[in-house]
Q: What sequence folds into this?
């Protein structure tokens, strides 16, 4: 019913606008600026192929540094485009798509016996230069990488333009100190549609 | 007071006498003298009508003495009308000329003046409303493929629809609606889904260069879609169609033709689910829905002058990705004045507006962000004058404002282009048998070089059935703003750059055709040769480490097509078309083409009509030959080629259409009856999953109320 109503409203709007070139039925993309607050990060700039963005969940801060640069003193996980690594931690993908539901399940002990996936050293996962793709020469960085965490977004490069499919799942991140965070990624682009700006919500510690 | 009442009574009785209904009778014959049973006889601008009996006789009741026009029509015959005035006592008979193959239809695209299709100096292929109804398709791309060989709609990147018409792509074939251009393009093609067929009167196709009349883009041909006007005092049409993969189409139209006003409003909605295919370049076709609402209102200022206003809105949404829906909108409007100055001189002035937008709807943020907008305003003057009742001079001019904002320009920027043109054409009837048409057009562009486009064509009619046509014409396509100013990052893989120094793509077209037309048979054979200069395409540029729009070397394209259609009064009909295309490559040059060398279409049909029931059973097929070509290979930086073979295929469709009470149409169709499924879905494979079934119902409500 909502669909029909939307068609009628849109058609009426369209008919009204037909002669008015100034007519605007669109939204403003805004400035796409990054922000963070209690339990969320919005539009984290992970657009660079040659940087990691380090996230400190307790401090609510992020810092972008080059691939080879030394990591900051406090961080829980880092993002490079849509790739993730942890600070000596491990990750489990839950079946939940709502953050609070996953937190409740954690409290109920649902995830007591699950298998956590730690980072692995990779030489062919983290792309730092796409420009050679047409030659079959994609350049990769040698770095740690967490395959479980990176499941949050499936990126299919076999078709052009690539197809992005978010899992919408809640991920549990166990830090090296044994604390656990619940993280749910909400978007892989900003309001203007520029990809690589990442938004997520989290609860930490559980 | 008494005197007054008597006067009123006298007046009322006079009116009653004047308005007394009376009967008109007559017979409808064919031109061979046979009475025509079940022919329609209708009184224009009223809902009064009749159907002839088995002896071709009809009887009508007119409301009173006055002036009326009675029209007789019958499928397969040219309609005829006769005025009646006052009380008619003698029979009003009609003699209808057999025309089973539409030779009496009028076309305008070839010369921009109305001509009988067999007398147009430029060979024009006509798709009639009857053809459209029988094809049982939704938009122009499906219809053209069903009706014409040599036309193939396939998919380019991102599942965008891409046209190939005998070697010419989407930018080289000009699509017009009532003579007006369409704004917007995606990967060099207009949005064909805008061009639904709910409100289409007919479609005219002229192959070959036609820039001397139509300017830019008329390189490979012109497709002109002519929309309907209301023909009844009031009319309401409703239609619905259901098919496989959740396919649905629903439409409604409301029209009236009353006094000085004629109005037509139509609405159409279409949807289809995503379709999962097998292995291939694409494994899934994105689902989508669209709707279209249009209004056309004509006001007859006088017998010689009319004003037409139109407006339309189109919306399409595609299920592109899980969190992103592609949206396409079009806002259009226009005003037109047609003025018949006298019997020999006509003037047409028009203003047209078209805005085509693309936006992305993000489901996560619930925001609809526009990233493309093409706005066109154009004005036009067209003047026709007829000398000695047979020679026609056509002169005209246009001015166009073209604005584009796109994500493919740096910082989502915009560019604007102005263009103007003037043209003249002389249609000279040298003798009763020989006609010469010469034309010249000058086009000015604010950003690129001006163009001059000539045309010279001859038509020779050795007898009343045969026509020989010969034509030399030039066509061109001005570089678009996109091609001149693109600055686009392709997924961080490479850049695509525009080129402001591009020259216009242009072609020299030579064509010859032979047509043999009579009421039951029509045959055409057409051959052509095109030399195309400065084609515009992207080339890899090592210095820029990206693609750049460039003018390409000259290419020659030659081809031929033959069409044969027959129709017999017994109800049997057949239509066969075949097209052959050959692109010439220099010795040593790698053969790269998207054009299949051969294709053919065939339709066999049988139909009968009685007083309250009619049917038409049709079997139609389409065959496309295999294509052996070369494509750039990813093995070596996309700079070398590898051979590729695209298989040919054949698709058949069986359709039964039934008409009840001359108002209700039910169409049942089995598509792909031999269950063809590609082993691998190439970009040019038919995106079919096998045999499908659809059913559609349409109702012309006013026909149910017609007083037979």
A:
């Amino acid at each position: 019913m909502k669909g029909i109503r939307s068609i009628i409203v849109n058609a009426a709007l369209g008919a009204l606008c037909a002669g008015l070139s100034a007519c605007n039925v669109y939204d403003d993309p805004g400035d796409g600026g990054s922000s963070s607050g209690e339990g969320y990060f919005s539009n984290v700039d992970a657009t660079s192929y040659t940087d990691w963005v380090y996230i400190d969940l307790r401090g609510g801060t992020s810092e972008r540094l080059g691939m080879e640069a030394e990591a900051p003193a406090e961080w829980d996980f880092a993002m490079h485009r849509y790739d993730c690594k942890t600070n000596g931690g491990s990750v489990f993908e839950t079946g939940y798509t709502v953050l609070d539901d996953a937190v409740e399940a954690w409290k109920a002990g649902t995830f007591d016996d699950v298998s956590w996936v730690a980072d692995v050293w990779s030489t062919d996962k983290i792309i730092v230069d796409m420009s050679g793709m047409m030659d079959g020469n994609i350049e990769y960085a040698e770095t740690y990488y967490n395959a479980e965490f990176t499941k949050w977004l499936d990126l299919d490069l076999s078709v052009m333009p690539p197809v992005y499919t978010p899992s919408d799942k809640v991920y549990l991140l166990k830090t090296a100190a044994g604390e656990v965070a619940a993280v749910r990624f909400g978007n892989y682009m900003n309001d203007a549609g520029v990809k690589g700006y990442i938004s997520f919500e989290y609860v930490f510690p559980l | 007071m008494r005197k007054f009442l008597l006067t009123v009574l006298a007046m009322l009785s006079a009116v009653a006498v004047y308005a007394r209904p009376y009967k008109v009778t007559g017979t409808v014959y064919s031109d061979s003298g046979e009475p025509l049973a079940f022919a329609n006889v209708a009184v224009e601008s009223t809902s009064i009508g009749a159907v002839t009996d088995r002896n071709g006789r009809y009887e009508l009741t007119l409301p009173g003495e006055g002036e009326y026009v009675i029209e007789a029509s019958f499928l397969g015959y040219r309609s005829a009308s006769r005025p009646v005035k006052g009380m008619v006592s003698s029979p009003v008979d009609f003699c209808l000329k057999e025309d089973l193959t539409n030779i009496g239809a009028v076309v305008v695209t070839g010369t921009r003046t109305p001509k009988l299709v067999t007398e147009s100096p430029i060979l024009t292929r006509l798709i009639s409303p009857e053809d459209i109804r029988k094809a049982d398709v939704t938009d122009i791309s499906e219809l053209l493929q069903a009706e014409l060989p040599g036309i193939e709609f396939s998919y380019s990147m991102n599942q965008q629809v891409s046209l190939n018409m005998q070697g010419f792509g989407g930018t080289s074939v000009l699509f017009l609606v009532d003579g007006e251009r369409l704004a917007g393009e995606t990967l060099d093609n207009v949005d064909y889904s805008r061009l639904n067929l709910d409100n289409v009167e007919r479609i005219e196709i002229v192959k070959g260069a036609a820039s001397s009349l139509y300017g830019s883009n008329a390189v490979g041909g012109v497709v002109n879609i002519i929309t309907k006007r209301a023909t009844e005092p009031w009319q309401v049409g409703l239609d619905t169609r259901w098919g496989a993969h959740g396919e649905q189409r629903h439409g409604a139209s409301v029209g009236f033709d009353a006094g000085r006003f004629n109005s037509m409003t139509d609405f159409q909605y279409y949807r289809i689910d995503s379709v999962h295919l097998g292995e291939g370049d694409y494994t899934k076709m994105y689902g989508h829905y669209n709707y279209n609402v249009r209004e056309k209102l004509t006001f007859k200022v006088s017998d010689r002058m009319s004003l037409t206003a139109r407006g339309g809105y189109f919306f399409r949404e595609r299920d592109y990705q899980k969190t992103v829906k592609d949206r396409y909108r079009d806002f259009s409007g226009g005003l037109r004045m047609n003025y018949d100055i006298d019997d020999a001189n006509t003037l047409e002035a028009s203003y047209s507006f078209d805005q085509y937008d693309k936006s992305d709807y993000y489901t996560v943020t619930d925001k609809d962000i526009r990233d493309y907008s093409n706005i066109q305003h154009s004005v036009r003057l067209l003047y026709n004058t007829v000398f000695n009742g047979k020679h026609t001079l056509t002169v005209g001019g246009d001015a166009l404002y073209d604005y584009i904002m796109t994500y493919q320009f740096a910082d989502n920027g915009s560019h604007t282009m102005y263009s103007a043109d003037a043209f003249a054409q002389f249609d000279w009837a040298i003798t009763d048998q020989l006609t010469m048409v010469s034309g010249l057009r000058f086009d000015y562009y604010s950003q690129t070089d001006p163009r001059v486009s000539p045309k010279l064509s001859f038509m020779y009619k050795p007898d009343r059935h045969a026509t020989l046509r010969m034509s030399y014409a030039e066509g061109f396509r001005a570089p678009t703003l996109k091609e001149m100013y693109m600055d686009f990052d392709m997924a961080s893989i490479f850049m695509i750059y525009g080129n402001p120094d591009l020259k216009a793509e242009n072609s020299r077209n030579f064509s010859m055709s032979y047509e043999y037309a009579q009421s039951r048979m029509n045959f055409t054979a057409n051959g052509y040769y095109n030399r195309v200069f400065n084609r515009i395409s992207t080339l890899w540029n090592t210095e820029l480490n990206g693609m750049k729009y460039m003018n390409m070397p000259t290419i020659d394209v030659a081809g031929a097509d033959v069409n044969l259609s027959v129709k017999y009064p017994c109800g049997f009909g057949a239509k066969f078309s075949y097209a052959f295309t050959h692109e010439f490559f220099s010795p040593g040059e790698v053969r790269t083409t998207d054009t299949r060398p051969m294709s053919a279409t065939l339709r066999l049909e049988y139909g009968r009509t009685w007083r309250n029931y009619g049917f038409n059973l049709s079997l139609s097929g389409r065959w496309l030959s295999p294509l052996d070509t070369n494509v750039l290979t990813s093995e070596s930086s996309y700079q070398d080629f590898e051979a590729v073979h695209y298989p040919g295929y054949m698709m058949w469709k069986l359709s039964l259409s039934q008409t009840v009470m001359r108002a209700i149409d039910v169409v049942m169709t089995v598509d792909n009856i031999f269950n063809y499924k590609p082993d691998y879905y190439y970009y040019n494979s038919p995106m079919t999953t096998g045999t499908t079934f659809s059913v559609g119902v349409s109702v012309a409500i006013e026909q149910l109320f017609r007083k037979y």
